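Revision sheet: structure tokens.
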Amino acid sequence: MKNIQRLLDIMARLRHPETGCPWDLQQDFASLVPYTLEEAYEVADAAERGDVEDLREELGDLLLQVVFHSRIAEDRGLFTFEDVASVISEKLIRRHPHVFGEAVFETDAERHDYWESSKVAERREKGKAKDDDSALSGIAANLPALVAAQKLQQRAARHGFDWPEIKPVFDKVREELNELEAACVTSDQSHIQEEIGDLLFVIVNLARHLEVDAETALRDGNRKFVRRFRYIEKQLTARGKTLAESTLAELDALWDEAKRNLSD
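Predicted:
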């Protein structure tokens, strides 16, 4: 664990009020949020690409964010990195009684239900569920929208608010698509935005019923689009043309070619 202590010592020096780095000294919890989110996404990207070297480096960058936040808290007399490690250790032990205790779970569903009930109990113990005892309590407001939608639907489903089979979900997708088409006729932009939101929400529900993570599926779709679009650019360059000089028919033909030639 010597490198953990080394990292903590480096951060303490960077935050030294007299000899530290001016930029590091200016930071607070809020100012670090964009960097923390960025590092988390870079960890996810490296993991999904299976790039072990990148993953090791990106995990270090994310760990730095944890250490940075902890050092700011320590400077303010709030808590330390050791406190952070202690809290998560206790939480893991508490939420895994089948490993650290005598509990027995027969299925993954039982384990998951216990995990969720533990989270509710923890919120109540902290007093966070006193004024808001909704089944949807505790879902972070600043999650990516697709992730949040999936979590909201999962939470509601655990309380019986869900279709028992997938056919009604497809019907709901068609219903929302029809409502969006009707909204487009009115040219009411706020109404169109509302219907787009409804359609996206039910698409996430469809993904959930098909046991597909919507956020992962969309990231895969984004990467596929990038690969195919770059193929188009490369083919046009070989022909001495640019995107602006090409017709939509040419671009569409190259898109179909990309679909045939690239392994997605």
